[in-house]
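Input chain follows. Return structure tokens only.
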Amino acid sequence: MIARVRLFLVLTRPAVAFLFCVYVVIGLAKAGDTGTGLTLFQDLVVVIGFLIFSVAVNDLSDAPIDRQNLPNSNRPLVTGRADEREMKIVAMTAAVVAIGAAALGGWPLLALALGGLALSAAYSLPPFRLASRGAVAALVLPGGYVAVPFLVGLLSFRTTVRLDDAGLLVGLYVGFIGRILLKDFRDVRGDALFGKRTFLVRRGRRATCVVSAVFWTAGGALVVATTPRPTVGYIAATSAGLVAVLVLLRALANERSPRRDEAIISGIAIVGRGVLVLLVAQLSMTDKHWLPLPANLVIACFAVLSAGAVRTMLVHGPRSNLVITSSAPRGEDVASAHLVWLIL
């Protein structure tokens, strides 16, 4: 039992769990609920169950690729901490938990949970195996990582999705596509070896960065345009974050060092997290009718903290949990497992 609990904790990857929680809070805030009561707890149970199911299923399908890309990571099937049978039990248990918690919130949440679980299974498992279909994977994955937690938060407070809700969701979705395209930099060697035709494998570094920049720009602009009553500080801080991302993407398009790639992509990840936090703050303060001056000061504080974190990442780089073996080709070491932070 203790071993299985530990397996649940390993599969609840902190970076991705944080991302899901933020999108739930954004959905709740957009619906007008900025409290932290039972509704939030129920929503988090739904999305964490969905997350564990998605991670377990993906680990099962990608085990051979993970052994190539992340030989010294903490992936349970790579380390031998769990076998396929245990992973299947965890996946089914997580799905039951997500469905049960969603059912308590009414039929919209139940339908959303069932649809999200089906999408996640189709993404990782045959016969669909959307993860191996290049650009299709980058378009589908945000449906689970963005739409599911956002709509769980939104629909747990009210049962309708308004036009402005849909606009904000589309902006978040489009922006996330720009981030998820960069995930493949970590896995490019194993993906190419096992025939996983990601966008990066098919189109190369420069094209991936250009497309990522387009999605970042479109998503950021749409999020700002659909944010209710945005303050001047929010618009300025979000725009500055977008400019920083474009500068970093330009550097990534020309970089050739795996370690430097890590630092740049992790810096982009920090900007992404910062922009989401700014959005949560803006929605919450708008709902509470904050005056412009204190609201702008709060936004400015968050922006400065994010900028400092980005600078630290670019100077020192992410910590690595991986030990590169002597058999690894010189100059082609495996990227750090910490690169998973990019999806934030």
